[in-house]
Fold this sequence. Notes:
Number of helices: 10
Largest sheet: 6 strands, parallel
Structural class: alpha/beta
CATH superfamily of the largest domain: HAD superfamily/HAD-like
Strand order of the largest sheet: 5-4-1-6-7-8
Number of strands: 8
Strand content: 5-15%
Helix content: 40-55%
Number of domains: 2
Order of helices and strands: EEHHHHEHEHEHEHEHEH
Amino acid sequence: xxxxxxxxxxxxxxxxxKEGYFRCYHETLVELGVHLKPEEEKKxxxxxxxxxxxxxxxxxxxxxxxxxxxxxxxxxxxxxxxxYVDSLSIIPGTKKLVERLSKKYILCVxxxxxxxILKDKVIPKFDFPNVFKQIISSYDIEDVEKxxxxxxxxxxxxxxxxxxxxxxxxxxxxxxxxxxxxxxGLLPIVVLxxxxxxxxxEKLKVEYIIEDxxxxxxxxxxxxxxxxx
Length: 229
């Protein structure tokens, strides 16, 4: 029986995060006086997608490494300002969903989004219910090797919540979420509101694929009734 649900955040509960991140990176480069062709800028950002911003900026500035520290300062000012948050919209029905789920399951978040922004800006903006027992971000982990798609974040949640991997699922929108879930021993559930298309998710041999997170309860019902679990 499922006891714990681990959620990614971006493109699971809110939409527009990619656009917000891209704007922050682009405006950082502009302020630094670094000009890349749009296709090259996008390519470099996606090459390190899901990593903390320092690693993303390292890739963007691989020909200007001396600008990295300054770039991080500028980027943080953009990210903690209104550029990122103003790019977001909430998926309708998610607040009521998590309120229902919290009565039956332990809910946690494992995300690449900076936890300060999530807790202090995003959650308050959308008046999101205080239902998550634990939120862990890539920014909470000093060792770059332990960030997504490494299973470390999920393993820490399992340990803190005293839950077995077989009693948990992970809901995410990206390849890294699937990898992280499987390496931690969790069943991945993919939402199509983010990075992966249905065909891509099927190629990853994901069994449970839903249009968005509001369809999660039907999957959980199947799992809870499964003799396997």
